[in-house]
Amino acid sequence: MEAFRVAVEMGADAIELDVHRSRDGKLVVIHDDTLDRTTDGTGSISELAFKEIQQADAGSRFAAPDGSFPFAGRGLRVPTLQEVVEWLPERVGLVVELKAREAVDDTIAALRDSAARAAGLVTVLSFDEAAIDRAHELDPELLTGYLLVPAQPFEPALRWAVEHGHLVVMPWDGDLGLDPAPMLSLALTYGRRVGCYVVNDPLRMQHLAAFGLWGFVTDAPDVARQALGPRAD
């Protein structure tokens, strides 16, 4: 939650998060499918009850440039999707990556009545074709997108997205190349939007924006905001 708050303060247009399902059915916002790398806890999310997940310190592993751990011991916990949705400020978008198929139905249900969903500010993405198809089936009006693994061919993925009703295609930034115009033009022909991940260089951000990229994931929203100018509210 601290990361989301800071991102909004830095001027992010949206926050991006990953969803897993705990043993007792809670929708848990955490990148990995285990606690091991990002907290001081251990174990698989799907095999732990939410009460057990809440015992982990979610700030313990974040190292500052000086080698310190400024968020350790501050009571930061792994949040639920509901907690994030209820906190999300007005006009800030929410990008949800579906990591586990078993979480899809509950995730779509949790998003359906949210203010962000009503405002058209929710996008659901996945590398998993079955997961994103299920999301589209459950809520055909929800903006859904296909995440591509690095080096995955763009044109077949674009055709698949068109055939399955997904509006967004999200390749790895390196696969867009120095001239993203051909890919973006092809997508536009099919009425699709192209985003990418992960862009941290300000010149690259400006370059992609100039070509009309729909959006990009970044680790540095403050750098992006400075590079691209004020939010278009």
Query: Could you give the distance between the termini?
Result: 23 Å
Helix content: 25-40%
Please state the structural category.
alpha/beta
Oligomeric state = single chain
User: Which segments are poorly predicted (pLDDT under 50) over 5 or more consecutive residues?
Assistant: none
Strand content: 15-25%
Q: How would the global form be characterised? A: globular
Structure description:
The chain is α/β, with parallel strands linked by helices. It is 34% helix and 15% strand. The chain is built from ten helices and eight strands. It has helices spanning 2-9, 50-53, 81-87, 104-112, 115-118, 129-138, 154-164, 181-189, 202-210, 221-228; strands at 14-21, 27-29, 93-98, 122-126, 143-147, 168-170, 193-196, 215-216. It has an eight-stranded mixed sheet with strand order 2-1-3-4-5-6-7-8. Helix 9 (202-210) links the parallel strand 7 and strand 8 (215-216). The protein is globular. 33% of the residues are buried.
List the helices and strands and how they pair.
Blueprint: H1 2-9, E1 14-21, E2 27-29, H2 50-53, H3 81-87, E3 93-98, H4 104-112, H5 115-118, E4 122-126, H6 129-138, E5 143-147, H7 154-164, E6 168-170, H8 181-189, E7 193-196, H9 202-210, E8 215-216, H10 221-228
Parallel strand pairs: 1-3, 3-4, 4-5, 5-6, 6-7, 7-8
Antiparallel strand pairs: 1-2
